[in-house]
Amino acid sequence: MKKLLSLFCAFAFLTGCSAFDSNGGLFGGAECESREARDFMAHAEDRVFFAFDSSALSDNAVEILQTQVDWLKANENVDVIVQGYCDERGTREYNLALGERRANAVKQYLISQGVAADRISTISYGKERPAVLGNNETAWAQNRRAVTVVKASAE
Among residues of the chain, what percentage have pLDDT more than 90? Predict the structure, then answer.
């Protein structure tokens, strides 16, 4: 077990931030986030949630997205990626398409509020990357989301 743990630690160290994503923890860690990403997380909410089988933005989602609009307007040199997700129900293909509609709904809202379209890209993960594991409405509701992530700058 110690050898396995040592191997993992060496892998994480050698790969640096590429072994991490922006969600925290394994495949995510604040030490790998840019200053812009940390500032975004401190001043804007990064995710909105959707009703079952829907890509329509709720009133609450619009309020959250307004925090993103305000931040993006104040930080015009920063680009973002909107990631669309679904719960585990439905086929892989259907959920990839629904995740894309969710990401595009967020993108279109940001554009409608004055954020330049070329600053926003989208990707759908469908049901492949759940935020919460479980087969119940509580878990599913947390997985029906779109997350806005600051794009890593090319340095």
Answer: 75
Amino acid symbol at 144:
R
Distance of alpha carbon 118 from alpha carbon 42, whole angstroms: 24
CA 73 centroid distance within chain: 19
CB 143 within 8 A of CB 87: yes
Q: Which residues contact 142 (CB under 8 A, 6 or more apart)?
A: 49, 131, 132
Q: Is the C-alpha dihedral spanning 125, 129, 135, 141 positive or negative? A: negative
Cβ atoms 18, 65 nearer than 8 A: no
The tens digit of pLDDT for each residue in 13-72 reads 444 444 334 443 333 344 468 899 999 999 999 999 999 999 999 999 999 999 999 999
* pTM for this model (two decimals): 0.79
User: Which pairs from 28-33 meet CB under 8 Å and 24+ separation?
Assistant: 33/150
CA distance 100 to 93: 11
**154: helix, coil or strand?**
coil
Q: How far apart are CA 129 and CA 127, in angstroms?
A: 6
CB-count exposure of residue 93 (10 Å: 0-12, 13-18, 19+): exposed
